[in-house]
């Protein structure tokens, strides 16, 4: 066990099951976003939570702008944590860009993972008509980065509302906004650039680990067309349409998120 890596990524472990399940946050968030979901799996799994370097309570001194200018750097964080804990055949649950990070890690070291659970994933956020609708035009994403640079607090307020897309849930919007605001603005902007301007569509066919795609309703960040595209191009994938709205079902609809993940994992052992 590599204590330096566990400290660097603020790794937390709970539960005593034989199977390990690792939860990865999405952009701008830390491991606490899984607080309403992860405990439900502690009875039957060893639950592992972590922060990417630069997020949450990770070691900020370990942040390397060169390493984290692409999602591959964050995928290496996942691999480092798995290797530090001597994991194999692990269930990986990732939200949003965290799902794609896990996918990249699985391509490099497939033996470490038994299954991927991808919550609101997107391999590419940019529209590429007529074959692909990612949800955003390039000028929209460049405007997002510009706003992050000029008015980070204002960006956090707007982006949290956009991501959640549930005006009737102000308490969750505020929680998400606070998470964005707790991240160093320079690091958050670089992460945003790595996430929103990446295109991993060609990597989908390289995945050999079976996966569950959870697609939310009215998801502005990862529209339904993206979930359908991923299901079509991702080998051994299962697509489940959620009743949950917005982009953060693990925060806004934890019960449904738990149920769908549990049903998928239970079906594997029948």
TrEMBL record:
Could you tell me what this protein is called? Alpha/beta hydrolase
On the tree of life, the source organism's domain of life is Bacteria
Record's SUPFAM superfamilies? alpha/beta-Hydrolases
Q: Name one Pfam family in it.
A: Abhydrolase_6
What is stated as this protein's family in its record? Belongs to the AB hydrolase superfamily.
- Report keywords, A-Z: Hydrolase
Sample GO molecular function, one term: hydrolase activity
In the UniProt record, the signal sequence range is none
Location of the AB hydrolase-1 domain: 21-259
Q: Which organism is it from?
A: Bacillus vallismortis
